[in-house]
Write a structure and sequence with these properties.
Strand content: 15-25%
Shape: globular
Length: 753
Amino acid sequence: MTLSLKTKIFFIGVGNMGNPMAMNLIKAGYDVKVFDQDSSKAQNLLSSGGVWANSLAAGASWADLVMASLPGPPQVRSVMLGESGVLAHLKPHASVIDTSTSAVDLVQELVQISLQKQVHYLEAPVTNAVDFAALGKLSIFVGGDETTFHHYKPVLEVIGEKIFYVGKPGNAATVKLLTNLLWFVSAATIGEALMLGGKAGVPLDTVWEAIKSSAGNSWVAEHDVPSIFAGHYDPSFSLDLCVKDLTLVNQIANSQGYSLTMGGVAKSLFEQARATYGGDVGELHVAKLLEDRVGMLLRPPHGIPQPHETQGQALNHAYRPVQEKLLKESKALMPQGVAENYRYWGEDQTVFVDRAQGCYITDADGRTFVDFRLGYGPIILGYRDMRVDRAVIEQITQRGTLTGFSTALDAKVVQQITVLCPNIEKMRFANSGTEAVMGAVRTARGFTKRKRIAIVEGGFHGLYDEMMWKSDVESWDPQSGTDPIVIPFGAGIPEKTRDLVDVIPLNSDEALETLFKTRSDQLAAVVLEPIVGNCGSISASPQWLARLRSLCTQNGTMLIIDEVKTGFRVAKGGAQSLYGIHADLTTYAKAMGNGYPVAAFGGRAEVMDAVGSNKGAVVHGGTYTGNMVALSAAHETLNILTHTNALETVDKVGTKIQELLGRVFTKAGIEHAFAGPPAMFGIHFTPSVPTNYRDWRLTNSALYQKFAWKLIEMGVMLEPDSREPWFICEAHQQLDLAWLEDTAHQAMRAAMG
């Protein structure tokens, strides 16, 4: 039989590795059904043309080819054997390609059972990281019948770049495991080598450059050293999997009549790391085991002591000689000595950052902070994430940065977003949240032929004149019985720009109904953040947002949801997926590129089609719009967010941090409430969650400010204003939460005097 795209493939196990492999098969045009114990892992595949199989039996009886990507031998045995297993339901002459890393004796057993059932069985364990799987660049070792191998090689070439036929069944498992043995032994020794240089006083960057130019360099070093320096310890491969593979490779040696010396040592080290940090954390925690034992984090240039030992120095004049000098020099060149207003924290507290990695920033005086500010939210994976940076570097060095013409990346990124965000049908790019909101508002006006817009108190939609009006809640007396006055953010904003803007309180039914009664035929758009990023993540109630959606629809007004902060952060589909409500137009930025400057606006096709170069259409453009640096970062960031558990990790960490802070506040007798989702939560010292900006005015924001400044003194960076949320990134999973809780206790005691 000649292999064709009509070959029906049943793919079992669509987790970190299986998902991108199955996706590549779907994209290649194969008819693919999928199955996993967790059906949510398959949603992106189903959205892309894959079909869900209701059971192993149903998928196997339908398929010409079964492929599997499973955690280890117990799962392989369970899936393949038994009355409900795959082999019991395959048609004669069907085939199995198992990409799992299994035990040699199990592979040989399955091959024999398959032969009895006239089924072809190939073992094909894969290697390389998850991002290689997404790119179809895995290395694959294949053992089994050579004719079957050549028949299915076209399928293997869809998911892999380098494919090795290694002979009889069991050989592929052996080859895969021996390569992992070298990887794990190297990972352990790399940490030791870096520590030797760092403790000797050699700059770690110099140590790494020396390794790269010596016989000590390797692919493992090229992969692992940046991950250690970044502090995320390669979350793509867990300690559980490391221990499993090291157990198997030692078993192979024992079956051959000898034992592995280095293999045994490596197994012991990884078992210690798993016992210390848990089995689901990244493989390079074997290096963290050394860091914790020695008391120094391997972070360039000279390593830093563990945070709980050194981050208690006060951020004050006496400890800031370099930053003082930089501010003095900068003030001669820039207003207030900073590149934009919000970076100026006063003469004694303005921060100059020297470097950032993972969830840490280090200031120009060498003090390192755990960062919950994250540049006001763009960092969703971690600073200097090697996966994103590698994609950008490849783009710059191999294809360029900007031409002023379209590229294939344009549509690819939009397609990624439409898969995650069903509210998007068509889209245009921008360079910042400000630009995205400008584009969305102009599009709404062009589509509706109306001029007025409405915004919500406490929201922030960028730095252009019409959006720079706010209710002066800070100066408002809640007991006055009057509404706050509306004022400009600052000088240079013409009064005339206020004429077309209405401002209403969040969650006020009366204000919402009044707005549409008085402005129904004039209102082009209502613009809001349903989770208000500049108001401590105070959120719209589902009922209020649903009513707003209904009124916009009834009155022909465009609902613009600003997801500059929430998009690709609070959920894969943003805030709209949490509410189940879709906007007419949506703006995105920040987390979309993990720190690279990229933004977009989009929505319903009929609305977006108001944009164009034809006469009378809405004008949109920009020299740097859709530049290849920004889009390559967005493409890889969205790929990671789509195909990994990064956002699930962010939510878990955010929840744990809320829990420990809650214990701190309760112990101190402070009434408190958390607002918003775990990925960007606000803290309010008040008995219940505020419902709008005016409620925020009633919270104990002064105590929060004192608490925040004490945290900053002790090595925890955040915005010292309760209107700015705590932002969480994937790299925060490596944070010592016990240290954070102890530090927060100390900060609260100091804040309360």
